[in-house]
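Ticket opened by: R.M.
Priority: normal
Category: complex prediction / small molecule

The reporter submitted a protein together with flavin-adenine dinucleotide and asked that the result be attached to this ticket for the collaborator who will pick it up next week. Submitted input follows.
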Amino acid sequence: MAQHFDAIVVGAGGVGSAAAYYLAKLGQRVLLIEQFELNHQQGSSYGYSRVIRYTYDNPIYVELMRAAYPLWFALQAEAKEQLYIKTGGLDFGFPDVDTFQALKASMDTAKLDYEYLSQSEIAERYPQFTLKEGMAGLFHADSGLLRASRCVLAHLRLAQERGATVIDRTPVMKIIPSENGAVVKTEKETFSCDRIILTAGSWAKALLAEQGIDLPLKIMPCQLGFYQPRQAADFAPSRFPVFFAHMNGSYGEMPYGIPHEDESIGVKITTFYGWNTVDTPAEVDYAPSQTWTENIREFAREYIPGAAGPLIGTRRCLYTLTPDKDFIVDRHPTYPQVVIGAGFSGHGFKFTTLLGKMLADLAVEGSTVHDTSLFKVDRFQPAYAYASP
Ligand SMILES: Cc1cc2nc3c(=O)[nH]c(=O)nc-3n(C[C@H](O)[C@H](O)[C@H](O)COP(=O)(O)OP(=O)(O)OC[C@H]3O[C@@H](n4cnc5c(N)ncnc54)[C@H](O)[C@@H]3O)c2cc1C
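Result attached by the on-call engineer:
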């Protein structure tokens, strides 16, 4: 006899761990299944830090972050641990750069209380930056960092404290939706459930193809570097903001970085996008590129010289990209009890606690109060087949 649960979640990354927590909060008997060990390094959610910010170039995301921040504070309170570190956030560059202008316009539309700083004002407040004549900045005080792996582990722990069952090192091999639920097969066991949430990260494309959904997801094995600062205190969260450099493509799409909480970690610097994509996780080459770390150090030498020290560490991490870089948060068009969270395109972590709640509400209530207009699964019409599995 298959063991039955009210809800099963496939994938215990940033989004799946949150979905399991909110399902358990809704009183569901939950099973969360992870193919690797919990908090593994092969997906997208592992690590010291991720940027959290309201500052988006689309007001819909600003509104979603207005819902996410209070949930992070509530999670922190329940977990009795600090997960969010406020650092302030600086977007800098020449004001005529498209991305800079789009961000400013969106923040104006969303009535976000940011500061427009001139180059000299930035130099006064953050002498760590050596910006070019004519550059400027958009500063928002509530930006900061999330302690990424600790957020995932907090959602997992609180879900288990609320009765959820979590099994890891157990790949889900097959999912068979039926009229009123689904059957889930692993190598050794079969489970059944009334509803299922698929949050499989870079493995989503294959899992969803079996459900008759062929999504144009691409995997980008990006890289991040941790650099030894000359004066560690200058790059601590209390003295240095998270930053985004609007460079019009020089040094990759958009270099960005995060202060260190402990100098042995170093200042985290990476770029948004700009790596070759692959179609399957099996094709991912996790070996870091030396050329890339040197290129980023060059950026640091030019704009944040105090952070251009020796490389402390570097590694790969996976983005799962949709063509428009917006998420997929929706129900399966044929099997509404199958709920999909995928394609978080390199900017999903700050939303994970909200995404978990949205997916749990979609699975249990059939709807969510939050705006999913950007996240519909059928927006990729041409590549999308409504074929039943
Ligand atoms: C280098 C880097 C920097 C980033 N920086 C930021 C940032 O600053 N701010 C921000 O907001 N976002 C950032 N992101 C994006 C963010 O981290 C991701 O959007 C988010 O972590 C995605 O979470 P996920 O749960 O979808 O994926 P994952 O964490 O990868 O979780 C998916 C899980 O599903 C499991 N799984 C897959 N298939 C199966 C199966 N068949 N059976 C069982 N388990 C399965 C996988 O093993 C995995 O654990 C960054 C991403 C990277 C890579």
